[in-house]
Amino acid sequence: MAEIIEISRLALHDQVGERLRKLLVEGRIAPGAKLNERELAELLGVSRTPLREAIKLLAAEGLVDLLPNRGAIAVKLTEADVLDSFELLAGLEAMSGEFAAERISDAEITQVRALHFEMLASFTRRDLSNYYRLNAEIHSAINQAARNPLLTATYRRINARVQALRFRTNQNEAKWVRAMQEHELMVQALVAHDAPAMRKVLVEHLINKRDTVIDLLRAGQIYPQRIQA
């Protein structure tokens, strides 16, 4: 019985973590905002215990900062943080893409293509939330296909801190269209096992994301103000 209870608790705080992650990534909790446990527990319909466990999980991922005497704060990056993060991410993406193009299996290519077609459908519906979820799954699948667990772990840790910023780059129609086109090129490079082409498109993809984020930051358009139910 104890084992069943433990699994149930684990599943609960994982579920709460997933819902809280979505609020953070989609900007429904403003970067720099303190995570109010009472409000969030009510919003998510859970007690504070699984909520606190979920917050610890997201702090480990880099979406939340745990600050002495302030509690949990949604991560808020400066322009310098963004430049440093995307510079590193571009290198990690380039490396993982190159390895993936060389090492990916036919089954993995089929999986990526299926995710890509689902993402295209979300793009056509302008369903940004589902599009971003599928987008993240595609990048994760590429990292997995690189067959380098240390590279994948490092990528995930750095990428977690900029997820909310990456989400907002697709709220500009022209930039969203360009991102979709870049994903088409990624699929083509993987199918052809073309490592140089995969490296090139992933670096360009990250640079374009970085430039869009910097433009939004400088224009004061990057951060929403409050939790929205």
Determine the mean pLDDT: 88
Tertiary shape:
globular
Strand/helix succession? HHHEEHHHHHHH
* Rounded Rg: 18 Å
What's the CATH H-level superfamily name of the largest domain?
GntR ligand-binding domain-like
The CATH C-level class name of the largest domain: Mainly Alpha
Number of strands: 2
- What profile does the largest beta sheet have? 2 strands, antiparallel
The tally of helices reads 10
Structure overview:
The structure is a single chain. The protein has 229 residues and is mainly α. The protein has two domains: 2-74, Winged helix-like DNA-binding domain superfamily/Winged helix DNA-binding domain (Arc Repressor Mutant, subunit A, Orthogonal Bundle); 79-218, GntR ligand-binding domain-like (Four Helix Bundle (Hemerythrin (Met), subunit A), Up-down Bundle), CATH 1.20.120.530. 75% of the residues lie in helices and 3% in strands. It has ten helices and two strands, in the order αααββααααααα. It has helices spanning 2-25, 37-44, 48-61, 79-103, 106-125, 128-145, 149-160, 163-169, 173-191, 195-218; strands spanning 64-67, 71-74. It has a two-stranded antiparallel ribbon. Strand 1 and strand 2 (71-74) form a beta hairpin. Helix 5 (106-125) packs antiparallel against helix 6, helix 8 (163-169) packs across helix 10 (195-218) and helix 9 runs antiparallel to helix 10. The longest helix is centred in the middle third of the chain and has 25 residues, at 79-103. The chain is globular and about 50 Å long. The chain starts with a helix and ends in an 11-residue tail after the last helix. Mean pLDDT is 88; it is low at 1-8 and 224-229.
